[in-house]
Amino acid sequence: MNLTNLFSKINKNIIIVVLIVLIATFSIISIKLYTLLYTIHPPEPVKPPDYHFYLVAQNSVDPFWKEVYLGASDSAKENNVALEFKAPRFNDSNEQINYMEIAIISDVDGIATYVPYDERFVDLIDKADSKGIPVVTVDNDAYKSNRKSFIGTNSFVLGEEAGKIMVDATGGKANIAVIMSNDVQKDTAYHNLKLNGFLNAIKNYPEMQITDISISKMGIMSAEDITQSILNSDKTIDAIYCMDSVDTVGAAQVVVDLNKVGNIKIVGYGDAPEIIRYIEKSIIYGTVISDPYKMGYESIEALLEIKRNGNSSTFIDTGVKTITKESIKRYKEALEKLEQ
Prior knowledge:
- By secondary structure, the protein is of the alpha/beta class.
- It has eleven helices and twelve strands.
- The chain folds into three domains: about 1-45; about 50-150 and about 290-320, Rossmann fold, CATH 3.40.50.2300; about 155-290, Response regulator (Rossmann fold, 3-Layer(aba) Sandwich), CATH 3.40.50.2300.
- The chain has helices spanning about 5-40, 65-80, 95-105, 120-130, 155-170, 195-200, 220-230, 245-255, 275-280, 290-310, 330-340; strands at about 50-55, 80-85, 110-115, 135-140, 150, 175-180, 210-215, 240, 265-270, 285-290, 315, 320-325.
- The protein has a six-stranded parallel beta sheet with strand order 2-1-3-4-5-11, with helices on both faces. The protein has a six-stranded mixed beta sheet with strand order 7-6-8-9-10-12, sandwiched between helices.
- Helix 9 links the parallel strand 9 (about 265-270) and strand 10.
- Helix 2 (about 65-80) packs parallel to helix 10 (about 290-310).
- The chain is globular and about 95 Å long.
């Protein structure tokens, strides 16, 4: 071995030793610094949640309920609340009843729930109340129950505002088809507050009448099938009123597919992005909206007020807004301000 190779080998060994020493030194210093910082600023112990609340929604596919959950989640995070969210995929009162029973058995601290049109649900609300579990209702009320508070909008006013939009859309002359969600059966349809509000808005227009009421099984495909059936029937239909956002989108898609844009006026519910785009394109004439985010947020706030102070307002109104092509610019500007 010549001297050059020998020195090269020695240099490599020296470099390796130096690197090992540096790594070891760095590790020792890091450990000492961590120990020092831990001593000066020990990590705060994880605080257990103050309350465990349970949110039962109507379904998990409607963007409306996703917004409700978002609002509820934000309030829960701000107030150190553990929040469980449960919902059937599509409207199903039996599943909602199961979730309520689970919440009661689990002895949660509070329940926020949508109320389906099912008398058994009122009994469950009263059962929860008897066990000391406060219940607040969201979007749909059970005023004859022992619920503590209702968070939402006046359903009659929602329907009335939709009726006013329909009058504008049709000039006061229309044969209207109504698509309702499947938790309202046909024999009780006219007892629905939204429908009664709608009827009240058009009652002074003798050339406006409801000629068909259909029940959607919840889902865009269901609404599409219903709309196609309505428009292909012998009935002369020139306007459609949809009571939830999923049915509104489904109906609009069929009107586009059948090339009936302009011939069929659609008034719907909700402000899902698809609905806003359809309004901008004059496929949907207008929509009424409540504030699902505020509903979710205020439902948790109401439960907190009940737990802390023993009571809450019996009705927390989250308001009603309307959107048409004429007002959509103002709607978007207001939305942008909220997101800033």
